Amino acid sequence: MSSPILRHAGAATLAAFLAGTAPAALFAATPPDTLVMADAIDDIITFDPQESFELSTGNALNNIYDGLIELDPIEDGKLIPGLAESWSLAEDGVTYTFKMKSGITFSSGNPVRAEDAAFSLKRAVKLDKNPAFILNQFGFTKDNVDDKIKADGDTLTLVTDKPYAPSFLYNCLTATVGNVVDEKEVMSHEVDGDMGNEWLRMNSAGAGAYTLKSWKPKESYFLQAREGYWRGDAKLKRVFMRHIPEQATNRLLLENGDIDISREMGPVDIAGVEGNPDITVQESPGGQLYYLGLNQKVDAFKNPKVLDAIRWSIDYEGLASTLLKGQWTVHQAFVPTGFLGADNDTPYKLDIAKAKELMKESGVEDLSTSIVVRNVQERMDIAQSLQNTFGQAGIKVELKVGDGAEGLGIYRARQHEITLQTWGPDYPDPNTNASTFAENPGNKDEDKNTGYLAWRNSYDPGDMKAQAQAAVVEKDTDKRAAMYMALQKEYMMNAPIIVMFQQAQQDALRADVKDWHTGGATGNAAYWLVTK
Amino acid sequence: MTDAAYQPPSRIVGLLRQSGGLVLTLAITLLGLMLVTFVIARVVPIDPVLTVVGERATTAQYDAARAAMGLDDPLWQQFAIYVWNTLHGDLGSSLRTKLPVLGEIARYLPATLELATLATIIGVLVGVPAGVLAATRPGTWADQIVRVVGLVGYSVPIFWLGLIGLLVFYGKLGWVGGPGRLDANYSMMLEFDITQYTGMILIDTALNGRWDMFVNALSHIALPAILLGYTSLAYISRMTRSFMMNELGQEYITTARVKGMPERRVIWVHAMRNVLVPLITVIALSYAYLLEGSVLTETIFAWPGLGRYITDALFANDMPAVIGGTVVVGTLFVTLNLVSDVLYRLVDPRAR
Known about the structure:
The complex is a heterodimer.
Chain A: H1 3-21, E1 34-39, H2 55-61, E2 69-71, E3 79-81, E4 84-89, E5 95-100, H3 114-127, H4 132-136, H5 145-148, E6 149-152, E7 155-159, H6 166-173, H7 183-187, H8 197-200, E8 210-216, E9 220-225, E10 238-243, H9 247-255, E11 261-262, H10 267-273, E12 279-294, H11 304-311, H12 316-321, E13 328-330, H13 352-362, E14 368-374, H14 377-392, E15 396-402, H15 404-412, E16 418-423, H16 431-438, H17 453-456, H18 464-471, H19 477-494, E17 497-510
Parallel strand pairs in A: 1-10, 1-11, 14-15, 14-16
Antiparallel strand pairs in A: 2-3, 4-5, 5-7, 6-7, 8-9, 9-10, 11-17, 12-16, 12-17, 13-17
Helix pairs in contact in A: 11-13, 16-18, 18-19
Chain B: H1 2-43, H2 48-53, H3 59-68, H4 75-87, H5 101-136, H6 141-155, H7 158-172, H8 184-192, H9 201-207, H10 211-248, H11 251-258, H12 263-291, H13 295-300, H14 306-315, H15 319-347
């Protein structure tokens, strides 16, 4: 009786199913002129280069805009000319001059002028969004920036408040905030004195290889190649970036050829595609660091022997070769590999006997403490390993697990004992980390220097602060690098902020994708070089 | 005659009274929902200011942002402002993207609506006949199969089914499209080549006459819709079976059978009319459940739906987006209940 109905219903479902399924295979490959990528891009909140401070946007904007000076997309960390042809520092040590290249146009067709470069840098200072501090370090304020940054003909002049290491300024100019926007185009969209910010959040006005065609928050963005890019037109006409945070989904899409590059595959799925002739895995360092912050309000953590015992109770190699395989490498200095002056020495390893001995020498008995940790798998894995090895060394640990923002709130209020955190550099210069790790302008609670990791851990770095400040004004780049090396060594052995790992980015590519450059720890990805 | 002249106004007044009562219930429910969500958002130990200013912010920047967000005002005042704005169609702006929450939801809702509707259609088309089949043949192999299929639908985690489904039908067999609503090339066409009337791709591509794109969209929605339809089917078939068995034990069914009425008519006309009354509520609830957004399914299938929107917002501490999303889902839920109430009255004269 009901079987005919069942049959009909079944047939209808099957028909609908088959109607949808049959042609799917026909469209499996990505379009030949389009680079299709998957990544977690929900961090993007704006495409305005003078507002953006997020990793995903940094990659996109690197392909939409150019700056005065840039990082070589192929050789990580090397400075190359961007829109400026040459630059120099005057005898006074504070006046920098940039000579602009001629004949370059924005995507609007407007010529790139020194005025545009000056406008962009001043715009960053005046908008005063998150990345403004990168330029404000050189003494620029909303009130003085019109006098300090000036354009004259094809020359841009920039005057800092005091002499700094030239490499410091040049590195800072390569950051996303230093990208040059098309003044005429941007200002034609100005509303209520916002310098075009509202418009530029979802549009583009750059001299780069691509233009922003559309952005759907937490879903995707499209870039369209422009004609007449001064470095030569992009090889692929379009870039389609999809927000796919799920790792297994990334792998499936890549294996089926529905994406060209996955930037979001975990160690399990990376291992899973090994041996697949259609897929290659490319590794590059990232800038993020994992560290332990030990609050100096806890008496035991002021004891150097206890700190040393903790340094010897961490299973660096074990974690890096298992749970964090391919995603993080052992790194114990606060300047990431790839940056000027990075110390790649890793003197500490797991040595429980030594840690026990140090605990005995410290005179601290039955130490019991807690680690504030964010409730995500990777961090929980690390925290549990620490709990285990610290326990073997005689340090009892309780894990205080919570949401990321909750943990950050506790950390910024200096209410933690130990916290497991990550830190990423703000701009491609060692000072970005030296200043926050080794400087603390005032260590009292009411000073509220929340931007400094040293302050958050109630740590007064003593004379290391002077060393960091000396390095940032050292004109000789080699000497400057050596100063950071020495500072990191001292810090590693004394500070209660213990760096453990540096990020390693693993991208999985279809085998036909060539010339994929991620920019390493300091830079951003170059889409315009990719071929397939 | 007098009766006939008297009755219609009474029915209209009655209906109006009932409708008024329903609308009042709707308003009170929504206000309650807003209050609860608002209070939860304020008491959770998550700092919305940090979401806006970021980890590097100085205390001065932090304090300025806090004041600008109105978080220093008394709680009741914040709530009153929120209700007032909501009534004027302003759900605030997302802390992350700084875009109006209503606009963002308008972008995510159609994807969920499309998926949930298709899943419910599958659930009803298969679930109701399966339930009837099981009820009319209790204890037989047909009943057992429906029971086992229902049990699996209930108990197997949807993300596992989703991953396995993708692996087999997309990864190995290539029968369906992969995660996402369209292939890459069609995604670009959708953006620039066609007019989007509803945001629901199947409808928009059909209205534009882009049947190639329609077929591609169907290949992408087929698997998640069938999977969600399956969980919905499991529930609907179980409930149909139980309702139908209850009805088939009634005396009017025996009477109909004794009178020699064909079994098909007994079941599908006489019994089904009474089964429909509670079944409408079951289907409406199941539909509403799917409209809330199936976070896991949406995550695995990279489906830009409402569930994922709200969950992402929650993880990013974007409270205006969370509250806005919850209010919209709540409104949908209450509205569906209202619709099922009205349908209920249409089907069952006693409820009028």
